[in-house]
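#onboarding

Welcome to the new folks! Below is a worked example of what a typical request in this channel looks like: someone posts a single protein sequence, and someone else replies with the predicted structure as tokens. Don't worry about understanding the tokens yet, we'll cover that in week two.

Example request:
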Amino acid sequence: MTNIFAAPANEAPENPVKKTRSETFVYEKDKEWEPAGEGVTRQIMGYDGQVMLVKVKFEKGAIGTPHTHYHTQTTYVASGKFEFTIGDEKKIVQAGDGLYMEPDVLHGCVCLEPGVLIDCFAPMRADFLH
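Example response:
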């Protein structure tokens, strides 16, 4: 078993624990928008091994291709209007609404009005990192 410990602030541990995580402060102006499908781009706004926050921008008509993953996902609609399909349910959501996608459930969306989704994943999406 690996010993995990924290050293006092003025002392470095002999074998520091290396963590996968983002910078503490993530500024939109400093982040490139990464392609995430036709008419879809994203910015990773913070993460560690347990959680990841991702901002996803959609053009009108863009499709969030139906997919599954083992991560728990919650999504906040920051702007725009979307038709989401989660499992067997299809609903329209707009700015201010939220969604929950349990692990391994098929989900996707169609953007009805240009907008931004804020996705939170647990654990983090290692496949989103370069």
